[in-house]
Amino acid sequence: MTSSLKTGKFFYLSKPNNKEYSEWGIPGNLTELMDDERVTVPTFLFLIANLIFGKFIHYKIKTEEGNMMILLFGFGPFGKWKKNPAGVIAKEFDGEEYLGEKIKGLEIPVSARYIRNEIPKLIKENKPKIVLGIGLATVPVVYVERVAINLMDFSKPDVDGYKAEDEPIFEDGPTAYFTNLDVKKVIKNLRKSGIPSTISYSAGTYLCNALFYAIMHTINKEKINSIGGFIHIPPFPEMVVDKNIASMSKELSRKAIHIIIETAIKG
Fold first, then answer.
1. d(CA 56, CA 15)
2. Could you give the CA distance from residue 192 to residue 194 in angstroms, rounded to a whole number?
3. How far is CA 142 from CA 194, 197, 216, 231, in A?
4. Catalytic-role residue among 125, 145, 258, 262
5. 208 is known as an active-site residue
6. Domains and CATH numbers, the chain
7. Model pLDDT for residues 113-170, shown as the tens digit of each residue
8. CA atoms within 13 A on the CB side of 138
9. If you ran DSSP here, which 8-state letter would residue 3 be given?
């Protein structure tokens, strides 16, 4: 069953086979899902609502073994932001190694076309062990995103001048994906290191969410053994000296990404 997102309603656009239903615990093993510490009561009720209305959220990523690198995507400048901390940090990590894992960091354009066409190719070519998106938001702390939704609804055009309205990111994708990054452990480790942070349950409907969704959709569809996630970071202090907006130093933001990578590797 499919339906246009123009109606404002979500319908799953692809359905797993019966075996995968059983392995994912949907809909037969909802008690197992409720026992998973990562699934809160509101999230569980949200899943039930989706099941009742014929909708589906991917809960568990099925993948294969064997990849050995880390891929970071950080957005470049857009709109009023002539510098983007996300792209700056991604590029700084490029070529580094951590715990034997080589890091490939790329600054990418704030472009729906690029995300739809190039992100899946890069993930399939590199088959990373970890793939993280990094974006800028005027938030007071590091936001570790938990859910990506299959929707683009822009309040402003992207760098190509494209302004999406109520459209899916991928026609063959489900309503949403949960990250398979252990967000609670990430937050615990960030706070232990003195970095203010929180779990976020909405990455919006602009290109940060689109990148997050593209990451999760690709590793699921291609069955790549990757941990995928998305992180929002505040602006650097020099970007907001004349604004009443919270900021975070490059050093602290970089340390946050380092801790997230470390947590993902060590589990």
1. 8
2. 5
3. 12, 4, 20, 7
4. 145
5. yes
6. 61-266 (3.40.630.20)
7. 999 999 999 999 999 999 999 999 999 999 999 999 999 999 999 999 999 999 999 9
8. 7
9. -
